[in-house]
Amino acid sequence: MSxxxxxxxxxxxxxxxxxxxxxxxxxxxxxxxxxxxxxxxxKLEPVAQRLPKTPLVSDMLDRKRTIGRYGGQLRMLAxxxxxxxxxxxxxxxxxxxxxxxxxxxxxxxxxxxxxGDRVFTFxxxxxxxxxxxxxxxTEDFRYYWEDIANNRELSPSGxxxxxxxxxxxxxxxxxxxxxxxxxxxxPNPRFLPSLALPRPIFIYSPAHYLRKFHARYADPKQLxxxxxxxxxxxxxxxxxxxxxxxxxxxxxxxxxxxxxxxTKAPAQRFVFERNPYFxxxxxxxxxxxxxxxxxxxxxxxxxxxAKANAxxxxxxARGLSMADVPVLKEGEAGHKYRTLLWPIARGSAFAxxxxxxxxxxxxxxxxxxxxxxxxxxxxxxxxxxxxxxxFGLGIEGNDTVMPESALYQxxxxxxxxxxxxxxANAMLDDIGLAKRDLSGTRLxxxxxxxxxxxxxxxxxxxxxxxxxxxxxxxxxIGVELVIKPQDASNxxxxxxxxxxxxxxxxxxxxxxxxxxxxxxELALTRQDNFAWPKWGQYFETGGRVGEAPDMPExxxxxxxxxxxxxxSDLSAxxxxxxxxxxxxxxxQWVIGTVAGSIQPVVVAEHLKNVPAKAVFSWEPTAMLGAxxxxxxxxxxxxxxxxxx
Amino acid sequence: xIIYVLRRLVTMAVTxxxxxxxxxxxxxxxxxxxxxxxxxxxxxxxxxxSAAKADMLRAQYGLDKPIWYQYATWVGIWPKPSxxxxxxxxxxxxxxxxxxxxSEVVGAALGMTLLINLATVIFIHVVAIPIAIYxxxxxxxxxxxxxTFLGYIGLATPSFLLALALLFYLNRWFGISIGGMxxxxxxxxxxxxxxxxxxLSHLVVPVVVIGLAGTAGMIxxxxxxxxxxxxxxxxxxxxxxxxxxxxxxxKYPFRIALNPFxxxxxxILPHIVSGSVxxxxxxxxxxxxxxxxxALKVQDQYLAGFILMFVAALTxxxxxxxxxxxxxxxxxxxxxxxx
Lengths: 644, 339
Fold this sequence. Notes:
Chain B: This is Peptide/nickel transport system permease protein. Helix content of chain A is 31%, strand content 16%.
């Protein structure tokens, strides 16, 4: 580097400190002040050299966000070290991401080509680097594909399920250092969306870092020494332990996220530092993120609300619930924060799952009768539930997608979801449940009283409250509801074994789907769906365990799911989605009640660019991820440091 | 005497061995293992964790081996692939949850636990003994009744409730941060006067909360013991012979009244480590208690096993110390002489 250039650079750095745009040839990028010292000392290249040639220029202004200023640290809370993964989720750096309108956009990728969901060609950004400065290239994809996913010792069961379409793995071609192609014979529409999940499949790994721990590359003696030193049982165990793009447990693992962890567990306070090679810039050329540091304090979950009330966090959603809102509101004035109330995008905050694959033959027959499920649904006064438990803010109706989703149809929400105990009674009489005992409870065909044992996770206090109210409604239609709270994992085991009759839980995980997202949750694909654990088992194990679906309506779900999987046409996919949602509404496989409960989000008063109203969900918004936490900034830093 | 101690040591070793077996069996009793728990937890939080990797991880963690093998390698009476390395050899095993050796997880927490519980023990004695003496010597006075009343309240108040209330108001009035052992800012800083001050100010709530119930109990026991002794003939004689009241009290009846507390040393030692679990959880203190609870919940078997073993060992050692101390203090007690 010539003397002149060096002078020019330090002048540029000086200007950056004043936060003025740099006048130079080419794009103008602005150095975060917290890195300026390292740049001046020569430990770090200037920002223009650290960024990819074409960084991702954020469309902040289109989203009515304001240009921020640098600095400060964002204080958050976590209940345990493993919850640091939520920093990764909120940081939401993925090959492709959903934006706030749930369109799939390239993020780490410069662009992607999708030919009929069969051939995907990815283009990386030129000069993109890992957080340790090493180049990020297709070698990192190759390393993952050949040396991790297809290495029998590291992945005994082969590459993840999402790579399999039409029973086959893709052809993976490295075109050059920036281009890679995945091609299948049949469409694989799940591939792209699953790269944008809050917990995605990471199909790349830092090869330059991990090679040291891979038997194919490392010197056997050195590797053996490393394995012994880290007390791992084999090199594969060591490699698996160190390869952690998600849980932020390995401080040496390079990442592409806005911040990287620098604190080793166990600790009471974890610090994440700015990634100097992060690939996004704002429209004025500031390298993102604005905030220098994320600090996560470990505290027991019971104290989150109290700590927020005392002004000890700058941004917190996870761990706070609707019941905390009064405490949070109370502290707002004194401790300079706002409590945003975001609707939670879930199909239903309280849903009942009649187990269609339960062991008891009498119950199985009854629960499979659609009239019975509809009668139960008609017997619930959703309006009273809403008022009693959700301040009347919820949306009453079935377990279906939110109105914000393009796939929403009002009658999916309302079908069989009004409160009509007379009709419910008549229907139950029709089924042959007209006989009652002395207390007015109906009798099952075999003479037992119609007592539905509803099992629920013991720590879900709101569900238990809702069940107690529901029991009153059902008593009016001659159905007795008995609540059995228990340990969540125990509940799941019982469900898998077919011992549950009905389970209370929450509704759809992803209630903001687009036609491009997988409708697998609606189909019989998972054994942890309490409505049909055995059918899910059958699918998950490829028919080795569980039972084959034997109800025509349910089989239809699988046909529709297959249609979605095999078609590359958007309208066909939307059709599959709509039909599946319609089937759910009509069949009441899951009896939904009230959706759109509230997620309180505590935001420091001087933290800007946080949307006042937004939908909170795990999938697809990745909690706060889709709202670009890297664009949040403190407008008054002196105030923040004073408050510490 | 020496023979007695030796015999006790042998019994202790056998006791600990039996305890270690019980501990391991009990930790293993709930269905599933660490990995099933972890996958369940991930699933319930919306993470579609792949079960495919579970079997491989199970083999890596050694969870696919029979339980006797896991136990025997943990204690160190059976070789691992890398040779004998277990509790007996000073290797406390690996924590699954934190993925580091148990010693690293427990190390820092042990220090904090000792600090809190020692402070509490001192607090209890300093507060309880003078009050007990006062209320025993001033029977039926107004002061004594007030103290007795407060003592009952101290016994009856749920400690976690008191903890929450204290946290809230100390934060309001003095700006002490909520929960934890220090202000979060100091967590990653080296020791300094400011940090020490922060730790001390955060000690107030746990010590008062944990200590209060203990104090009330101690006042009542001490007072009852003293009352027994005060009316005995030797005390009356001492007074009659003209010993000043204070000396007459402290020299004889007080010493005898302390007797049960020396016998209590055996309980105090393990209590210093495992006490205050509930309060630690509520106050989110980085002590052993919450770590133990979490370890049991997720079946982090070697971590939970070590903590339980450690407490058991302390109990056994504490009992020995108590017995020896009693023998020294109270000449009426004889050890190891059968007739």
